[in-house]
Amino acid sequence: MARKPGSRAEITGPKLRETALRLFARDGYAAVSMRQIAAEVGVQAGALYLYTADKQSLLFDAMSDHMEALLAAWRAEAPKGDARDRLEHFARFHIRFHAARADAVFIAYMELRNLTPENFARIGALRSCYEAELESILRAGQDEGTLTVPDTKLATMALIAMLTGVNTWFREGGRLSRDRVEDIYVDMVLNAAGARV
Amino acid sequence: MARKPGSRAEITGPKLRETALRLFARDGYAAVSMRQIAAEVGVQAGALYLYTADKQSLLFDAMSDHMEALLAAWRAEAPKGDARDRLEHFARFHIRFHAARADAVFIAYMELRNLTPENFARIGALRSCYEAELESILRAGQDEGTLTVPDTKLATMALIAMLTGVNTWFREGGRLSRDRVEDIYVDMVLNAAGARV
DNA sequence: ATTTTCACTGAACGCCCGTTCAATTCAAGC
DNA sequence: GCTTGAATTGAACGGGCGTTCAGTGAAAAT
């Protein structure tokens, strides 16, 4: 993958981040060396440091960008209506968004351990924001009487775990289309949250 | 943690496996060196190879033992009755068993990547056996009419993800007792599986 | 045509890795 | 007290790690 002599490699920050994301997702942060990333980009290892402070930043930026994008995308959809509808909307959004970014999702869940304590706290804060979005729907549903959950905090964790779990087995082109998977999960989510039929 | 001069360290296979399990869970397989494990056991690195073939075996044995114990424990409980009761039993068993072995569970979910392909397939087979236990309950419930799930395969994945998610946040001595958490999750699981009220 | 700029190389730094094995140490059997 | 044999050490092997930086060479500016 060495670049042709006589031409610049023209590596860029974005390309480096994409490559690192892909390799981290495939082999794990600890198992991927800066030399491997560099080879994949078509450059020597030392050149990477023109585009990133260090290896840790590659991981943190990937996770941070993903979580920020997740929050921004959800807020942009800004669902209206009663809590039952908003919950359905959330479930469909979550499955759709996560299915489209399997690599980033995988990293965001598996590589938390490899963040420095400070970076870990930052990612944790972003995740809490996202969870708070779901919890506010459940609380609203409780108040309205459209949803009945035994404990909004636990229901939040339970539903997110259930929805995120889709990423461990869903593959485009499998037995069920993504739309069909959405429908099935919406059904289970609404039932779990005690939506009135 | 060096052993006292003049006395044998008396390390044993079980003690080594326990230490490796603890360190792998805390820091990750890739981040733990054989020298660290040896130091924790109170021995030089070379001595570990009297008790394990290699580092990979420490990981595989930990995961394999955990999955075998999980299957054996579930089969020993051998619940009778209708599918609704068996599903409740399964949910309580899953939460209880997993809460008691947080380290092993964490490894079994996070370190699959670090298994050789052959070992990965073996662990995958054990996991499939466990999932099949839940799926057979859901199918029975569907046949009996005591449960209503849109798709037994997806419901299996969804419920296991939901139940296993408990391990990411549950800590003994927190806001809710384990029994209370069990009750709440049973409620959500039964609702998600369309149990008749 | 010359100078300047700067992306990039390639070698080096110090360190840690999993694993092996000859040498040593020590408890037990005689 | 001596021999035996197993448990353990400690050094070594070959290799890879993240990161730094003086030097290089091609493009851009003059």
Automatic annotation (TrEMBL), chains A, B:
InterPro entries: Homeodomain-like_sf (IPR009057), HTH-type_TetR-like_transc_reg (IPR050109), HTH_TetR (IPR001647), KstR2_TetR_C (IPR041490), Tet_transcr_reg_TetR-rel_C_sf (IPR036271). Coiled coil: none annotated. It comes from the Bacteria. It comes from Pararhodobacter marinus. The keyword Transcription applies. Keywords: DNA-binding, Repressor, Transcription, Transcription regulation. PANTHER family: HTH-TYPE TRANSCRIPTIONAL REGULATOR RUTR, HTH-TYPE TRANSCRIPTIONAL REPRESSOR KSTR2. SUPFAM superfamilies: Homeodomain-like, Tetracyclin repressor-like, C-terminal domain. Residues 10-70 form the HTH tetR-type domain. GO terms for molecular function: DNA-binding transcription factor activity; transcription cis-regulatory region binding. This is TetR/AcrR family transcriptional regulator.
